[in-house]
Amino acid sequence: MTKVFFNQNIVSPYRLPLFEELEKDYDVTVWFHRETSEDRKWGAELENYSFDSVILKNFQVGPLTLNPGFFLKLLRHDFDVYFINENPSTFLSSFAILLAAKLKRKPVVIWSETIDTEKSQELPENPLKKIAVKSWRGFKETYRKILFKFSDRFVAFSQMAEEFLEKRGVPEEKIETQIQVMPEELLLPEPENQYLEEKYSGKKLILSLGYLEERKGVQDLIKAFRKIEDEKYRLVIAGTGPYEEELKNQAEGDERIEFVGYLSKQEKANYFDAADLFVLPTHHDPWGLVVNEALHYGTPVLTTKAAGAKELLDERYIFLEGGVDKLKSLIDEDFSEIQSVDITDIDKGVNSIRKSIEKEVV
Question: Is the pLDDT of residue 170 over 60?
Answer without folding.
Answer: yes
